[in-house]
């Protein structure tokens, strides 16, 4: 199923797309590389490191859809929202604009579908509700270096630290050396928003991403949490990183819908 192929000095298309934004040079930039067949993993990682963005997405045709994988500059990840949005944007607006929906098969996150929704793209992702963290690690609290949070939640590989106000989330200046010791866990911080239902930031220094500009995958957990807490089914979210980004989220049983816009900023080829 996951065959590999290697082609010496093969030109591979590469697109840089700013995801979760309607304007260039905001949101989260992802690289997207369509392939005709899989390269070996070392080569995929080398391409991701060369792109030097938080994530590079690779996809190959499979039946009516595509196989999809994501790499940071250091490793493969099991789920990535902004690079999925970027991949769908490339397919549905550049490579095959007659389509309005695309289906991706992934190794560890199952089937993901994306469809047009007006000027946005709607992604169908798994819901990953967080649970209360019974004993937050000392490195987590010290690494965030602020007043104590109101609560700490978690899923298998992410801690979610909840604060009272957006201002607290914006003020945090993490100690990345301490947060890196939490590997394989990354850290999201969140609070009620002033101009959105909730805000967040995301830190993953052990994956080569000190602060991710906009993180779609964390909203698989933030959406069910804030939907229950606020008693709402439609949520508007801001990720308040330096670049910033907007997401529209809806819970649905064991799934979540995450919507966002995207903008092309670069198109070319890479010799692999």
Structure description:
It is a single chain. This protein is 21% helix and 40% strand. The protein is of the alpha+beta class. It has an 18-stranded mixed β-sheet that branches. β2, α1 (41-51) and β3 form a beta-alpha-beta unit. The model has no long low-confidence stretch (mean pLDDT 95).
Order of helices and strands: EEHEEEHEEEEHEEHHEEEHEEEE
Q: What is the distance, rounded to the nearest whole angstrom, between the alpha carbons of the first and last residues?
A: 22 Å
Counting helices, strands and paired strands, the structural category is: alpha+beta
How much of the polypeptide forms β-strand, as a percent range? 35-45%
Radius of gyration: 18 Å
Tertiary shape: globular
Main sheet attributes: strand count, strand direction, barrel closure? 18 strands, mixed
- Report helical residue fraction: 10-25%
Total strands: the figure is 18
* Helical segment count: 6
Summarize the structure.
The protein is of the alpha+beta class and 272 residues long. It is built from 6 helices and 18 strands.
Give a quick set of tags describing it.
single chain, 272 residues, alpha+beta, 18-stranded mixed β-sheet, 18 strands, globular
Write the layout of secondary structure elements.
Layout: E1 11-19, E2 28-34, H1 41-51, E3 56-62, E4 65-71, E5 76-77, H2 81-95, E6 101-105, E7 111-117, E8 120-126, E9 131-132, H3 138-144, E10 151-155, E11 158-162, H4 166-171, H5 176-180, E12 186-192, E13 198-204, E14 209-212, H6 219-230, E15 235-239, E16 245-252, E17 255-260, E18 262-271
């Amino acid at each position: 199923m996951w065959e590999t192929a290697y082609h010496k000095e093969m030109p591979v298309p590469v697109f840089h797309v700013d995801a979760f934004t309607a304007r260039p040079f905001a949101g989260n930039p992802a690289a997207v590389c369509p392939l005709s067949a899989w390269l070996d993993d070392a080569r995929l990682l080398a391409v991701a490191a060369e792109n030097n963005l938080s994530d590079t997405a690779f996809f190959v045709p499979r039946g009516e859809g595509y196989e999809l994988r994501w790499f940071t500059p250091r490793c493969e990840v099991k789920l990535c929202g902004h690079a999925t949005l970027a991949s769908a944007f490339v397919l549905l607006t550049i490579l095959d604009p007659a389509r309005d929906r695309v289906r991706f098969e992934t190794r560890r996150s199952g089937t993901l579908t994306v469809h047009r929704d007006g000027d946005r793209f709607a992604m169908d992702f798994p819901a990953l509700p967080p649970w209360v963290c019974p004993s937050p690690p000392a490195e987590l609290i010290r690494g965030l270096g602020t007043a104590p949070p109101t609560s700490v939640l978690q899923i298998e590989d992410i801690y979610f630290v909840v604060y009272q106000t957006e201002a607290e989330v914006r003020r945090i200046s993490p100690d990345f050396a301490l947060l890196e010791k939490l590997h394989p866990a990354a850290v999201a911080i969140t609070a009620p928003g002033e101009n959105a239902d909730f805000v967040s930031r995301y830190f993953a220094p052990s994956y080569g991403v000190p602060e991710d500009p906009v993180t779609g995958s964390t909203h698989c957990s933030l959406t069910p949490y804030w939907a229950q807490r606020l008693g709402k089914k439609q949520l508007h979210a801001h990720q308040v990183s330096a670049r910033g980004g907007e997401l529209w989220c809806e819970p649905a049983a064991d799934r979540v819908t995450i919507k966002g816009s995207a903008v092309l900023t670069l198109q070319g080829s890479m010799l692999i």
